[in-house]
């Protein structure tokens, strides 16, 4: 077992037994669950990489092999043994326009970013695929039997896909996004989960503030496929009627009746939370995340430090100061920030000279995060790519084979970076307007989080020097504006070369190295 | 490489909030955490634990236990009658104690650079809570309430047994007497107890903990520190368990007196691994989890256990940067100034291109959080890492942390008990080098090499 020199295939089993000595609702077969990891289990830091085995370099990232759950589908009185590292089914609950889909998508994005394979299953989408044209709210009337039948079928189809995703496709978490407003419907889902050995965690959103609901409708419903041919007023009116169809039969999660379920109830967009029976690590992380996000409008500005001395020399890493052009960028950045007239802007940097020097030129208070430091290139620190090819041709090729997971000897991988940036992301979620002055690899990781990029794309995202990205959350995603501050700088972006084989020639390895002194 | 200065000195002219501490200091207003709940609901347990955690991650925190003030005011506790709601004299004393405690809170914030104060008392009436709220508002402090609600008689009885019988109030009583008196004490509060009201108090920031964590209600979390506190409170539990801390077996570099690196176990180190396995088997631990770092020496130690183990990069030894794999003699030779600076402030000193203990604490925080969630765990790690973890469990301050003794081939068994942690040390009788370097007398940068190397332990 190598000492972490090259990337290590790994998986981490975090099995948290139910806490607190309180009598929990557990099917009898659960009384002595034991995580099945192979002896000598290797694992990765990502606290949520359950059965996720990272593929070694040179191979395509496929659905990870499911380890440790061979007994997962064992039938035991119609209930599968729910191993402590079994998949999780998150179930949203709430009337329409309560933010369920917003939460589902955001949560899915976060979990995937930290390395937990997650997918959302939106029943409304299944309905749209089935009933090609949406006519009106009448479809949702509780006495519309045909409508009810179709909706039930859609829910079943979605659950089927959930089962496929979690048992065969390597999924770890599935988010079942629907209203699920009746106890009866939820009970069906709980049974489904028990039969398949999934844990269930409910996320209910309760909101009665008419302004918030109105805003929701305007932001996401009006542009829904259901309303493409309606004018705004018509659409709003129809949607309000739709909500009414659900209201009469809505049974909110009850403190007493539902005390054995695991859930979080989000009240009034996060004013208040009720959390019941968090069973394990992933649920605890989900709760923490949900309690930190908000929907107050704001923008996040991402940029790199100004051009540095080592940048112009084509050397990676290190801790050098800004070049004259870099200083010019810093000045222009200050002016740019002024013109944007941002309310209560927070400025964050790393603890490396080049970001600090950039922030200094802004003339406003800033905070330094060690977590924002550039990726540690270990033995390759301060080398040019040519030197890396010369001194470590094998490492260089391995990196090109799997740039996300590759760890520099005595250094870090992008995967490690994501892990150390997680607290930064969590705090970015809590904050409002923030300018983050960081580094190329770091910025790629942050950008991947906001723009939902995969691990394959992340290390190749373009983050040029002297360019500010302004990210503004809108609807279910993020608007990106790229602002170049018109100060020249070297290019530091190295594309993946065609030949990533360890037997390749030097020229093939260096073909994509950007120009430098 | 620039000279290393203590972080606070850099960039003084800007309001620089340094995040070498685990919590970015965004907001300068101090926070008063106000405990709420009947007696024997775990308020003091939570207060002390939370304080220990916040201090460990670098947020200066202190507990103000009003019961303590009362014990100092009324030297001898007679019986529960003191707490009867119609006991006017006692009421006066108790009110005065609460005021005195609040005054000390203000002093702690203004004169002692405190950031969080935990006001540990029953605070069971709206009136009392309003007083505290006004007190805080007047001075610009934030307030966060933590209410513990529990009606399970078993849990309450267990609480009373664990911590009340050992209290100074009951030191000369027999157990049954004490139990009876304490229950009557609880009754005194019950009639006037008004829990935080979800309607009337909806503007307050609070968390309600039901039945030792089975359920939580969280209202209006206002800032980062409150969010961290909530996360922490939602992860701790009281299920009995033990945490075993050990270093890897003696390594090749250990023998050579070299720091850091990623070497394998020496023959004696391998013997230790086997001995550790036997020891663990002998302990008959239920559902033991074993954790290691990503470095060879901890992994090799765990391999001998024959059980599943998990590797955490966060458990890797402190990165000594340019000093990796050097002996202390070589460090003194090549980096005498760095060596002295380290001795001056071992906690905050960061090796050039390496880490400080302070950085270590920050990267170990997720490990601590997961340790809180878990039950029986064996952590096989490294000297500096073990010092950080131990400091968390034993509430050691930053000044002591880097000098805690964590010798090779010794297992520490930590068992939470009452408000603290019982420590049992097991030396497994396999010899090993000593790797503990005490702080030398002379830490001046102009000292002689001998003065610097005086405390270096022996090696090959």
Report on the structure:
- Chain A: It comes from Oryzias melastigma (Marine medaka).
- Chain A: The active site is at residues 305, 374.
- Chain A: Residues 83-297 form the 6-phosphofructo-2-kinase domain.
- Chain A: Substrate binds at residues 304-311, 354.
- The complex is a heterodimer of chains A (517) and B (460).
- Chain A is an alpha/beta fold and 517 residues long.
- Helices cover 34% and strands 14% of the residues of chain A.
- Chain A folds into two domains: 88-291, P-loop containing nucleotide triphosphate hydrolases (Rossmann fold, 3-Layer(aba) Sandwich); 300-510, Phosphoglycerate mutase-like (Rossmann fold), CATH 3.40.50.
- Chain A has helices at residues 100-113, 123-130, 145-167, 183-196, 210-221, 232-247, 281-290, 309-312, 324-340, 353-360, 385-391, 393-401, 414-430, 440-451, 506-510, and strands spanning 75-76, 79-80, 88-93, 118-122, 173-177, 199-206, 263-267, 272-276, 300-304, 346-349, 367-369, 434-438, 467-474, 477-484.
- Chain A is globular, with a radius of gyration of 25 Å.
- In chain A, 49% of the residues are buried.
- Mean pLDDT of chain A is 85; it is low at 1-79.
- Chain B is an alpha/beta fold and 460 residues long.
- Helices cover 38% and strands 15% of the residues of chain B.
- Chain B has helices at residues 43-56, 66-73, 88-111, 126-139, 153-164, 175-190, 224-233, 252-255, 267-283, 296-303, 328-334, 336-344, 357-373, 383-394, 449-453; strands at residues 17-19, 31-36, 61-65, 116-120, 142-149, 206-210, 215-219, 243-247, 289-292, 309-311, 377-381, 410-417, 420-427.
- Chain B has a six-stranded mixed beta sheet, with helices on both faces. Chain B has a six-stranded mixed beta sheet with strand order 10-9-11-8-12-13, sandwiched between helices.
- In chain B, β9 (289-292), α10 and β10 form a beta-alpha-beta unit.
- The two termini of chain B are 31 Å apart.
- The chains are: A alpha/beta (517), B alpha/beta (460).
- Chains A and B meet through β8, α7, β11 and α13 of A and β1, β7, α7, α10 and β10 of B.
- β8 of chain A pairs antiparallel with β7 of chain B.
């Amino acid at each position: 077992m190598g000492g972490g020199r090259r990337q290590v295939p790994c998986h981490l089993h975090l099995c948290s037994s139910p806490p607190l000595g309180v009598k929990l609702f557990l099917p009898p077969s659960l009384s002595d669950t034991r995580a099945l990891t192979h002896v000598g289990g290797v694992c990765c830091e990502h606290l949520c990489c359950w059965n996720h085995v990272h593929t070694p370099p040179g191979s395509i990232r496929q659905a990870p092999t499911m380890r440790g759950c061979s007994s997962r589908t064992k039938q035991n009185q119609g209930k599968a043994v729910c191993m402590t590292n079994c998949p999780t089914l998150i179930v949203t609950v709430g009337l329409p326009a309560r933010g369920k889909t917003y939460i589902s998508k955001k949560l899915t994005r976060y979990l995937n970013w930290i390395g937990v394979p997650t997918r959302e299953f939106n029943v409304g989408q299944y309905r749209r695929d089935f009933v090609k044209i949406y006519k009106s709210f009448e479809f949702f009337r509780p006495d519309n039997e045909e409508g009810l039948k179709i909706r039930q079928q859609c829910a079943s189809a979605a659950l089927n896909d959930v089962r496929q995703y979690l048992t065969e496709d390597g999924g770890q978490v599935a988010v079942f996004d629907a209203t699920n407003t009746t106890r009866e419907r939820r009970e069906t889902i709980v049974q489904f989960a028990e039969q398949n050995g999934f844990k269930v965690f409910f996320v209910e959103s309760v909101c009665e503030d008419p302004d918030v609901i109105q805003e929701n409708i305007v932001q996401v419903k009006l542009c829904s496929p259901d309303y493409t041919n309606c004018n705004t007023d018509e659409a709003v009116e129809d949607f309000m009627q739709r909500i009414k169809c659900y209201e009469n039969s809505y049974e909110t999660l009850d403190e007493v009746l539902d005390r054995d379920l695991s859930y979080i109830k989000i009240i009034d967009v996060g004013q208040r939370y009720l959390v019941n029976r968090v069973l394990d690590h992933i649920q605890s992380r989900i709760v923490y995340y949900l309690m930190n996000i908000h929907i107050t409008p704001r923008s996040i500005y991402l940029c790199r430090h100004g051009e540095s001395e080592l940048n112009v020399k084509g050397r990676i890493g290190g801790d050098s100061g800004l070049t004259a052009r870099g200083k010019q960028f810093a000045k222009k950045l200050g002016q740019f920030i002024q013109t944007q007239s941002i309310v209560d802007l927070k400025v964050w940097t790393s603890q490396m000279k080049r970001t600090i020097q950039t922030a200094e030129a802004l003339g406003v208070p800033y905070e330094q995060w060690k977590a924002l430091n550039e990726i540690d290139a270990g033995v390759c620190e301060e080398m040019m790519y040519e030197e890396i090819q010369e001194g470590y041709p094998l490492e260089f090729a391995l990196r090109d084979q799997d740039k996300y997971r590759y760890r520099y000897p005595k250094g870090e991988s992008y995967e490690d970076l994501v892990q150390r940036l997680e607290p930064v992301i969590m705090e970015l979620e809590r904050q409002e307007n923030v300018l983050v002055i960081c580094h190329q690899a770091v910025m790629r990781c942050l950008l991947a989080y906001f723009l939902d990029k995969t691990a394959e794309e992340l290390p190749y995202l373009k983050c040029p020097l002297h360019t500010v990205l302004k990210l503004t959350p809108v609807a279910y995603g993020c608007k990106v504006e790229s602002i170049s501050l018109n100060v020249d700088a070297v290019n530091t972006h190295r594309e993946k070369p065609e030949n990533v084989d360890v037997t390749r020639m030097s020229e093939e390895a260096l073909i994509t190295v950007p120009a430098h002194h | 490489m620039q000279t290393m200065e203590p972080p606070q000195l850099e960039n003084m002219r800007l309001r620089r909030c340094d995040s070498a501490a685990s919590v970015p200091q965004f907001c300068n207003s101090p926070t008063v955490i106000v405990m709420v709940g009947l007696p024997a609901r775990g308020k003091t347990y939570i207060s002390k634990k939370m304080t220990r955690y916040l201090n460990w991650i670098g947020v200066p925190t202190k507990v103000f236990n009003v019961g303590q003030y009362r014990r100092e005011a009324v030297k001898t506790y007679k019986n529960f009658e003191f707490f009867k709601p119609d006991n006017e004299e006692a009421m006066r004393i108790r009110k005065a104690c609460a005021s005195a405690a609040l005054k000390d809170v203000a002093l702690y914030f203004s004169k002692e650079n405190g950031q969080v104060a935990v006001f540990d008392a029953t605070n069971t009436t709206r009136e009392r809570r309003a007083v505290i709220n006004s007190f805080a508002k007047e001075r610009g402090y934030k307030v966060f309430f933590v209410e513990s609600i529990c009606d399970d008689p078993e849990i309450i009885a267990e609480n009373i047994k664990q911590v009340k019988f050992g209290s100074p109030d009951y030191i000369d009583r027999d157990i049954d007497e004490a139990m009876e008196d304490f229950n009557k004490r609880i009754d005194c509060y019950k009639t006037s107890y008004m829990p935080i009201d979800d309607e009337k108090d909806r503007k307050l920031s609070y968390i309600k903990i039901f039945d030792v964590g089975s359920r939580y209600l969280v209202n209006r979390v206002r800032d980062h520190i409150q969010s961290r506190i909530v996360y922490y409170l939602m992860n701790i539990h009281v299920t009995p368990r033990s945490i075993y801390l050990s270093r890897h077996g003696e390594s090749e570099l250990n023998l050579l007196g070299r720091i850091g690196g990623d070497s394998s176990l020496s023959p004696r180190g391998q013997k230790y691994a086997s001995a550790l396995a036997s020891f663990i088997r002998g302990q008959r631990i239920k559902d033991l989890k074993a954790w290691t770092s990503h470095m060879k020496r901890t992994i090799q130690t765990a391999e001998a256990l024959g059980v599943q183990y998990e590797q955490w990069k966060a458990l890797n030894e402190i990165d000594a940067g340019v000093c990796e794999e050097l002996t202390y003699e070589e460090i003194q030779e090549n980096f005498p100034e760095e060596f002295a600076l380290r001795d001056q402030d071992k906690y905050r000193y960061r090796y050039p291109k390496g880490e400080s203990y302070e950085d270590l604490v920050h990267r170990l925080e997720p490990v601590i959080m997961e340790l809180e969630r878990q039950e029986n765990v064996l952590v096989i790690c490294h000297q500096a890492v073990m010092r950080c973890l131990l400091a968390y469990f034993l509430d050691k301050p930053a000044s002591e942390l880097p000098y805690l003794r964590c010798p090779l081939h010794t297992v520490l068994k930590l068992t939470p008990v009452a408000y603290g942690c019982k420590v049992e040390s097991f030396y497994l009788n396999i010899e090993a080098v000593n790797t503990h370097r005490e702080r030398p007398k002379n830490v001046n940068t102009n000292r002689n090499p001998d003065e610097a190397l005086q405390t270096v332990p022996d090696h090959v």
